[in-house]
Design goal:
- It is found in: Membrane.
- This is Chloride channel, voltage-sensitive 2b.
- It is a multi-pass membrane protein.
- InterPro entries: CBS_dom_sf, Cl-channel_core, Cl_channel_volt-gated, ClC.
- The chain is mainly alpha-helical.
- Helix content is 57%, strand content 5%.
- Helix 4 runs antiparallel to helix 6 and helix 8 crosses helix 9.
- The longest helix is centred in the N-terminal third of the chain and has 36 residues.
- It is elongated.
């Protein structure tokens, strides 16, 4: 709509009037009465407020977080590439003698591994491990603040660079989820200088979820898969408003992550991280779908076995620590021993020649996803010596033997490596193993059907690289219990045409693995002292008895209740006889009532009369006033009268609908409510009457007491048939009423 000159003048006048009124409130007089310096100061203050509100906006936070994570990921990749090139340079430098080459190959990896283990354990022990289990714990109610410090961030990044540079079969996706959460938590502290909303704990948890999505997005340049992965892995209940935040931040981070190599002239343009060249006109034949389904089933069993193997190795390591064996006396010995063992087996001139030991994990994935067929009846085709595929050619073994050895060796090597006290992830090594298994299946089919499939007179040859893509997604899904791995794979390779076989194999793998074992992240939680379903750490300190206030409460009652503990909120009931719950009142509101009463008495008495309400410990010295013109006994009588006056709640903010549970609520429903709403406490009512209060701490104790001695039983979504035959061995008979027996008695 057009605006004429009069309207423009009125608009200007309106804006000017608003600013003038705001300035008048600030300086107590009209704008025309201000001097030039005061006007400039006022306008500077106004623009400062606008700038602060702009900086504190959500989208600014999300873009800053994405940019920071992209830079960290890119810089980390550059350092890792330099470490790898240095390793190869030292190895080639000693080509005159096999023993020197072996020492160079083993010592380099061992040095970086020991440095990473020592740095992580000395600077911040919380930097060790994946980080995803700890983030699951934080996002499900238990804030582990020591895992979110700047010191832990520095320790995690530096140690992870050294671990990846040592070429141990571990990945960076798990640690990067942790790094993303740490960056989000630290950025929230910084942004709280501009916007008070970032001081809210619930808001910070939402931003930590976004950090998890950005961590995956900046590892694989897969923003959609990263957001979905953070939804599946880190959150039991996902807040819908975090969708756009996760997608925005992960997309911006992935864009910057892929743009930096172009800017650094490492790549020509933006493209998928593992771009493939598969045919687009006829991606796959219907006859191949059963093979993809069988691969999903096999990968489900393989993923469950990997989790089982990891659990056994972890149990063995714990027993060694408990017995204080020589191997576990410090973090260096175990890490050095594993590093020497794996480096010896992957030595290119030794056993490593039968498993392409000279290739890094990235180079192995590139070769697995290659569109060319490696073999003709088991003989590797002739490739250039500088091609990654040349590493899979051996005069004494065909490609099937080499791939089989690779899968078997990397399987147990990866399971051992993620038990080390270093920053390590399991996503990438499982990815590589699954891709190798898929390549093995694809090469076998290409050998069995060298002419491919004949459809309507057209011959379509089998592409083994497609099976590597499906195998990588399926095995990773079996280990992590996620569907988003399929989406990550599509973004990683730039192949949307193979969505159907990928999703079929991923879903079947999930069904099998969930029925046999928990996910690798839940296994880590179960084998440690951190329990995300039942958080044993709580800052909430509700007493056993129920403390409440009534409409007839006096100031003495308010003072006694506030002085008896640090309760953040108190229930408000109609009377002691009826106990009808009317709502809840925050502690700050009750303190404000006492302050208002004190100010009211100050006005009624002498203006110079000293009135001391309470000190920091809420212990009264003189509750309302001390008058020097009357006797001490009269002062005490006067104070007692003031304390016994009834409180007026008219000016107090009361929450009319606090969270409530009925008496017979089951333990499962109670836990679900606390988890979904992130509650610290809930009032228990019976026909509207307050009968008790349940805190998070009491709920944890009740759940812990209702569990079997062997620990927590996890119930995956697709694992309904796992407990057939043993149903009834553990039934949920504990009810909320049992939590209140000690309160009512």
């Amino acid at each position: 709509m057009a605006v004429d000159g009069t309207d423009e003048n009125n608009l200007e006048k309106g804006i000017y009037t608003k600013d003038a009124s705001r300035l008048r409130k600030t300086f107590g007089r009209s704008l025309s009465d201000l001097s030039t310096s005061q006007k400039c100061g006022a306008w500077a203050s106004h623009f400062q407020r606008l700038f602060v509100s702009f900086i504190g906006a959500d989208w600014i936070f999300l873009m800053i977080l994405g940019f920071i994570m992209a830079v960290i990921s890119f810089v980390m990749d550059v350092f890792v590439d330099n470490f790898t090139e240095a390793h190869r340079w030292i190895y080639d430098l000693a080509d005159s003698h096999v023993l020197l080459q072996y020492l160079a190959w083993v010592a380099y990896s061992m040095f970086l591994m020991c440095f990473a283990a020592g740095f992580a354990n000395i600077v911040s022990i919380q930097a060790a491990g994946s980080g995803i289990p700890e983030m699951k714990t934080c996002l499900r109610g238990v804030m582990l603040q020591e895992y979110l410090t700047f010191k832990t961030l520095v320790s995690k990044v530096i140690s992870l660079i050294c671990v990846l540079g040592s070429e141990l079969p571990v990945g960076k996706e798990g640690p990067f989820v942790h790094i993303g959460s740490m960056c989000a938590a630290l950025l929230c502290k910084f942004m709280s200088l501009f916007s008070g909303i970032y001081k809210n704990e619930a808001r910070n948890k939402e931003m930590m979820t976004v950090g998890c999505a950005v961590g995956i997005g900046c590892c694989f340049a897969s923003p959609i898969g990263g957001a979905l992965f953070s939804l599946e892995v880190t959150s039991m209940f996902f807040v819908a408003r975090n969708y756009w935040r996760g997608f925005l931040s992960a997309t911006f981070g992935a864009f910057i992550f892929r743009l930096l190599p172009v800017w650094n002239r490492q790549e020509d343009t933006l493209m998928a991280l593992y771009a493939t060249k598969y045919r687009l006109d006829f991606p796959f034949d219907l006859q191949e779908l059963p093979v993809f389904a069988v691969m999903g089933i096999v990968c489900g069993f393989g993923g469950a076995f990997f989790v089982y193997l990891y659990g056994k190795i972890t149990l063995f390591v714990k027993k060694q620590k408990a017995t204080n064996s020589f191997l576990m006396k410090n973090c260096f010995l175990y890490s050095a021993l594993v590093s020497v063992l794996i480096s010896t087996l992957t030595f290119p001139l030794g056993f490593g020649q039968f498993m392409a030991g000279q290739l890094t994990q990235r180079e192995s994935l590139i070769s697995f996803f290659d569109h060319r067929t490696w073999s003709n009846h088991g003989i590797v085709a002739d490739f250039d010596n500088d091609d990654h595929l040349a590493a899979w050619k051996h005069p004494q073994a065909n490609v099937f033997v080499i791939l089989s050895i690779f899968v078997i060796m990397k399987f147990w090597m990866s399971a051992i490596s993620i038990t080390l006290p270093i920053p390590c992830g399991s996503f990438v090594p499982i990815f590589v193993i699954g891709a190798a298994f898929g390549r093995l299946v694809g090469e076998g089919l290409a050998t069995l059907f060298p002419d491919g499939f004949n459809m309507d007179g057209h011959v379509y040859h089998i592409t083994p690289g497609v099976y590597a893509v499906v195998g990588a997604a399926a095995l990773t899904a079996g280990v992590t219990h996620t569907i988003s791995t399929g989406v990550i794979m599509m973004e990683l390779t730039g192949q949307i045409n193979y969505a159907l076989p990928i999703l079929i194999s991923v879903i079947l793998s999930n069904m099998i693995s969930q029925s046999l074992q928990p996910s690798i992240y839940d296994k880590v939680i179960l084998s440690s002292s951190i329990h995300f379903i039942f958080p044993f750490i709580s800052n909430f300190t509700h007493p056993v008895e129920v403390r409440y206030i009534t409409l007839n409460s006096t100031y003495r009652d308010i003072f006694k209740i506030l002085g008896s503990g640090n309760l953040k909120t108190l229930p408000l009931v109609k009377s002691t006889e009826s106990m009808l719950l009317l709502g809840s009142v925050e502690r700050a509101q009750l303190l404000a009532l006492l302050k208002q009463r004190s100010q009211h008495l100050r006005k009624e008495n002498a203006p110079t009369m000293p009135i001391s309400l309470y000190d920091s410990g809420l212990s009264l010295k003189k509750f309302f006033c001390s008058r020097p013109d009357i006797a001490a006994m009269e002062i005490e009588e006067w104070e007692e009268q003031q304390l016994d006056e009834q409180v007026n709640f008219n000016n107090c903010k009361i929450d009319p609908a606090p969270f409530q549970l009925v008496e017979r609520t089951s333990l499962h429903k109670t836990h679900t409510m606390f988890s979904v709403l992130n509650l610290d406490y809930a009032y228990v009512t019976s026909i509207g009457r307050l009968v008790g209060v349940v805190s998070l701490k009491e709920l944890c104790k009740a759940i812990e007491g209702s569990l079997p001695a062997d620990g927590v039983r996890l119930r995956p979504i697709l694992a309904t048939f796992r407990d057939r035959g043993v149903r009834g061995s553990w039934t949920e008979t504990t009810e909320l009423r049992k939590l209140l027996d000690h309160q009512i008695s």
